[in-house]
Model the fold of this input.
Amino acid sequence: DSGVTQTPKHLITATGQRVTLRCSPRSGDLSVYWYQQSLDQGLQFLIQYYNGEERAKGNILERFSAQQFPDLHSELNLSSLELGDSALYFCASQGALSTDTQYFGPGTRLTVL
Amino acid sequence: AQSVTQPDIHITVSEGASLELRCNYSYGATPYLFWYVQSPGQGLQLLLKYFSGDTLVQGIKGFEAEFKRSQSSFNLRKPSVHWSDAAEYFCAVVHTSGTYKYIFGTGTRLKVLA
Done:
C-alpha cells in the first residue's frame, strides 16, 4: 500500500460525458502528479500540482483540467469524453523535494462507451 | 526533445537466470533516472533511482542499475530472477532544470518461466 488513494476504482461512462477522478496524497506530501496510461500511448504525464499551485504541464488535453485543494487532495476533471480517453489514470504523490520518491496510487480505470 | 527508449517490449527468462533490461535516454544534461515496476492491475512502485554520485545504484527486491553517461544508458539488472518478478518495468527520466516533468519509456514486460 503506497498510502495514495484514488477513487473511484472503475468508471464507465458514455461519450460526451464529464467525470471527476479524485486523489488523496500520502500524509505530508505536497505534490500530486496525474498520469494517463493507455495501450497505444503508454504512460503519459498530464499535470503536476504543488501545494495548490500548478507546477508542470505535460500532454494534457484542453478538455481535461485539474486542481489541488487546500487539504492537498486533487481532482482531475475530464469532459466531452471520447472513446480514446478510455485508460488507466494514476495519481502519484511526492514530498517537498524534487528528489523525493513518487508514490503511485492504484489508479482509476475509465471506460468510455 | 527529451525521450526514453526501452528497446525490448517483451523479455522472457527462466527462473534463476540473470536479467538485464535496457534503457536509453536522450537529454542534454544528466537527468534524474528511475526504474519502476508495475504488477498487473497495480500502480507503479519505485525500484531505484539515480541522481548523482556512484553510478551503480542498488534498489529493492535485489535489483540494481548502472548509469553510463557515455552510452546514455541506465540498464536494470538482477542476478537471479524469481517468478514473482514477472511484471512490467518502466524506465523514467526527469529534467533537472526548469519544470520536473517525468518522461516514461514504453515499458518492458517480463515473463518468467518456471
About this structure: Chain A has no helices and eleven strands. The interface with chain B takes residues 2, 4, 33, 42-45, 48, 55-58, 90, 92, 98-99, 101-107 of chain A (CB under 8 Å). The mean pLDDT of chain A is 94.
